[in-house]
Specification:
alpha+beta, 3 helices, Aminopeptidase, 149 residues
Length: 149
Protein backbone atom coordinates (compact mmCIF):
# COMPACT_ATOMS: atom_id res chain seq x y z
CA UNK A 1 0.00 0.00 0.00
CA UNK A 2 1.24 3.47 -0.89
CA UNK A 3 -0.02 6.63 0.86
CA UNK A 4 0.92 9.87 -0.84
CA UNK A 5 -0.08 13.51 -1.08
CA UNK A 6 -2.65 14.29 -3.74
CA UNK A 7 -4.54 17.31 -5.03
CA UNK A 8 -7.99 17.17 -3.37
CA UNK A 9 -9.56 18.30 -6.65
CA UNK A 10 -8.02 15.48 -8.69
CA UNK A 11 -10.31 12.92 -10.31
CA UNK A 12 -9.09 10.17 -7.96
CA UNK A 13 -9.63 12.30 -4.87
CA UNK A 14 -13.13 13.24 -6.01
CA UNK A 15 -14.06 9.58 -6.51
CA UNK A 16 -13.06 8.76 -2.93
CA UNK A 17 -14.56 11.88 -1.35
CA UNK A 18 -17.83 11.27 -3.19
CA UNK A 19 -17.88 7.66 -1.92
CA UNK A 20 -17.26 8.96 1.61
CA UNK A 21 -20.06 11.51 1.29
CA UNK A 22 -22.53 8.83 0.17
CA UNK A 23 -21.46 6.49 2.98
CA UNK A 24 -21.77 9.21 5.63
CA UNK A 25 -25.18 10.28 4.33
CA UNK A 26 -26.37 6.67 4.61
CA UNK A 27 -25.05 6.30 8.19
CA UNK A 28 -25.68 9.76 9.63
CA UNK A 29 -28.10 11.52 7.32
CA UNK A 30 -25.43 14.12 6.46
CA UNK A 31 -22.64 13.80 3.89
CA UNK A 32 -20.24 15.99 5.87
CA UNK A 33 -19.36 17.80 2.66
CA UNK A 34 -20.21 21.22 4.10
CA UNK A 35 -17.41 20.83 6.68
CA UNK A 36 -14.59 20.57 4.14
CA UNK A 37 -13.21 22.46 1.17
CA UNK A 38 -10.22 21.55 -0.97
CA UNK A 39 -8.58 24.82 0.06
CA UNK A 40 -8.49 23.52 3.65
CA UNK A 41 -5.62 21.27 2.58
CA UNK A 42 -3.75 23.82 0.47
CA UNK A 43 -2.72 25.98 3.42
CA UNK A 44 0.64 25.62 5.10
CA UNK A 45 0.93 22.62 7.43
CA UNK A 46 -2.04 20.87 5.79
CA UNK A 47 -2.38 18.01 3.32
CA UNK A 48 -4.70 15.66 1.46
CA UNK A 49 -3.56 12.06 0.95
CA UNK A 50 -4.68 9.00 -0.98
CA UNK A 51 -3.93 5.35 -0.29
CA UNK A 52 -3.41 3.05 -3.26
CA UNK A 53 -2.78 -0.65 -3.64
CA UNK A 54 0.45 -1.74 -5.29
CA UNK A 55 -1.47 -2.05 -8.58
CA UNK A 56 -2.66 1.58 -8.29
CA UNK A 57 -6.23 0.79 -7.19
CA UNK A 58 -7.73 3.47 -4.96
CA UNK A 59 -8.17 2.41 -1.33
CA UNK A 60 -8.95 5.54 0.67
CA UNK A 61 -8.19 9.13 1.54
CA UNK A 62 -7.77 11.58 4.39
CA UNK A 63 -6.91 15.18 5.08
CA UNK A 64 -5.20 17.29 7.69
CA UNK A 65 -5.97 20.96 8.26
CA UNK A 66 -4.60 23.49 10.71
CA UNK A 67 -6.78 24.48 13.66
CA UNK A 68 -4.21 26.59 15.51
CA UNK A 69 -0.47 26.75 16.08
CA UNK A 70 -0.39 23.49 18.03
CA UNK A 71 -3.30 21.45 16.71
CA UNK A 72 -4.71 20.10 13.46
CA UNK A 73 -7.96 18.43 12.46
CA UNK A 74 -8.34 15.18 10.60
CA UNK A 75 -10.93 15.48 7.84
CA UNK A 76 -12.46 13.28 5.13
CA UNK A 77 -10.99 10.01 6.39
CA UNK A 78 -12.26 7.15 4.29
CA UNK A 79 -11.14 3.61 3.54
CA UNK A 80 -12.91 1.30 1.14
CA UNK A 81 -14.42 -1.68 2.92
CA UNK A 82 -11.98 -4.52 3.36
CA UNK A 83 -9.02 -2.50 2.08
CA UNK A 84 -7.22 -2.18 5.43
CA UNK A 85 -6.27 1.35 4.41
CA UNK A 86 -7.76 3.13 7.43
CA UNK A 87 -4.89 2.41 9.81
CA UNK A 88 -2.28 3.26 7.17
CA UNK A 89 -3.99 6.55 6.33
CA UNK A 90 -4.32 7.50 9.98
CA UNK A 91 -0.67 6.65 10.71
CA UNK A 92 0.42 8.70 7.70
CA UNK A 93 -1.64 11.72 8.78
CA UNK A 94 -0.29 11.43 12.33
CA UNK A 95 3.25 11.36 10.92
CA UNK A 96 2.57 14.42 8.80
CA UNK A 97 1.09 16.21 11.83
CA UNK A 98 4.25 15.51 13.82
CA UNK A 99 6.42 16.63 10.89
CA UNK A 100 4.40 19.86 10.67
CA UNK A 101 5.06 20.45 14.38
CA UNK A 102 1.56 19.89 15.74
CA UNK A 103 1.16 18.57 19.28
CA UNK A 104 -2.46 17.47 19.05
CA UNK A 105 -4.84 16.03 16.50
CA UNK A 106 -8.60 16.45 16.73
CA UNK A 107 -11.55 15.25 14.72
CA UNK A 108 -15.31 15.09 14.86
CA UNK A 109 -17.75 12.47 13.73
CA UNK A 110 -21.38 11.74 14.43
CA UNK A 111 -22.06 9.66 17.54
CA UNK A 112 -24.24 7.34 15.44
CA UNK A 113 -21.16 6.44 13.36
CA UNK A 114 -20.15 3.73 15.83
CA UNK A 115 -17.66 2.12 13.48
CA UNK A 116 -15.70 5.36 13.09
CA UNK A 117 -15.78 6.09 16.83
CA UNK A 118 -14.50 2.59 17.60
CA UNK A 119 -11.77 2.88 14.95
CA UNK A 120 -10.42 6.12 16.39
CA UNK A 121 -10.63 4.89 19.98
CA UNK A 122 -8.71 1.76 18.96
CA UNK A 123 -5.97 4.08 17.69
CA UNK A 124 -5.70 6.10 20.91
CA UNK A 125 -8.18 8.90 20.32
CA UNK A 126 -10.27 9.96 23.32
CA UNK A 127 -13.27 12.25 23.78
CA UNK A 128 -12.30 15.93 24.03
CA UNK A 129 -14.40 19.08 24.48
CA UNK A 130 -16.26 20.13 21.37
CA UNK A 131 -14.45 22.70 19.24
CA UNK A 132 -15.34 25.08 16.43
CA UNK A 133 -18.61 24.42 14.65
CA UNK A 134 -19.18 21.28 16.75
CA UNK A 135 -19.79 23.20 19.99
CA UNK A 136 -23.36 22.64 21.13
CA UNK A 137 -24.05 19.91 18.59
CA UNK A 138 -25.21 16.88 20.58
CA UNK A 139 -25.04 14.59 17.55
CA UNK A 140 -21.29 15.18 17.24
CA UNK A 141 -18.49 13.60 19.21
CA UNK A 142 -15.06 15.22 19.18
CA UNK A 143 -11.98 13.08 19.67
CA UNK A 144 -8.35 13.98 20.14
CA UNK A 145 -4.88 12.56 20.52
CA UNK A 146 -1.56 14.02 21.61
CA UNK A 147 1.23 13.81 19.07
CA UNK A 148 4.68 13.13 20.46
CA UNK A 149 7.53 14.71 18.55
Amino acid sequence: MIVSTCDPDSADARVLVDELSRALAAITGDSGASSFTADDTRAARSCFVIARAADGALLGCGALRRLDEHSAEIKRMYARAGSGAGAALLAHLEGEAARFGYRELRLSTRRVNLRAVAFYEKHGYRAVPAFGKYIGRDEAICLGKSIFL
